[in-house]
């Protein structure tokens, strides 16, 4: 039996890296070898060496992303990044993977001496379909892993049907109209809850929205992979998982991974944590702080910043704000001006606010002082908030975040969905509702307790991860597709 060795290849964005590193940690705990494939740019930014020291079965390699070294790799450059990965990155990936599947009977002078067996399986980001195709062409079984919610994956998969039904594109601006073409979500999904690029379609095709075109095609391509992995749990997204299972060769709900196999924080972040915020939290009363973090890609205008700040100050709670240097759509150095504006708004109450460029979010959300989380509703942040029972105020930015915020506000009931509005009065009311509502507090606690059961030994997600490890070992042992599929039960 070949020794199982998994090459994991995430898209080079912070949220994807977080999820894949937790996943890799779980594979290492199960005794598998892991090669983690970064881009050159990201590997230079991360503390990969320290993470690799944690296990002799983990190594980090990299391929180019096709962009110049000085490219800022911001959200508006995502189409160019994806193009670079499809061209320059895919060629380098093919050559690298071909070298990693070779079995050398006798070591030669070119061996690196790291003792790694040949790669026997690839787990590639679902939005990098070329990584699945190339692996299979080289005789390596490939699995797709989507780092967004199962509900978002199902919505992307349903876009062609929405166009066929005439629900896309929109012919008016009634964003609260229900969407009927995404199975299992008919009772709560509105136009405004679809991935935001859907609002920009002008014809019965996605070609005028390149990013949407790319993601919709990649989602459909996941049908070709040996299986689809999702960082979720059956208790959170059972209807979406059930419908997805009808379209994929197999589906594994193996999350939230950070709750089962947390990776070292330094290895997952492209930004350096400012740990000083933890001492500030220590000085605050229990459940009193609003934690504000809009993720790694969100960009806000000066006007949006002003409305968010005014609403937070009016709500009257102390707040911890993660303000990335590249988050504000202002001139270079604009983040310093925004920091000054925050401190001016709470003049005389300096201990009521803490502003940092990046925070150790998992530690923050677990802190006794945090009462609610004003979030962009990225799936990692959503899953982390859910697992720790933190109430949320959701202000989504793009992609899957619109659906995630709807789950929080209308399905799970553990927070307030504030999408499409950035007005100080709404911010104030939403924060107060999340902080003061007993119903929201109870819903957040119930969901957290269920997720803890799911991720504990014998829970649904833990069992799914064990099934996945067996699936990978079978793929590593034989060429034929394994017959390990079983019905997904609630």
From TrEMBL:
Transmembrane stretches, start-end: none
Top-level taxonomic group: Eukaryota
Enzymatic class: transferase
Gene3D superfamilies: Glycogen Phosphorylase B (3.40.50.2000)
Pfam families: UDPGT
Gene Ontology molecular-function annotations: quercetin 3-O-glucosyltransferase activity; quercetin 7-O-glucosyltransferase activity
InterPro entries: UDP_glucos_trans, UDP_glycos_trans_CS
The protein's Enzyme Commission number: 2.4.1.-
Keyword entries, A-Z: Glycosyltransferase, Transferase
Similarity annotation: Belongs to the UDP-glycosyltransferase family.
Protein name, as recorded: Glycosyltransferase
Organism: Oryza punctata (Red rice)
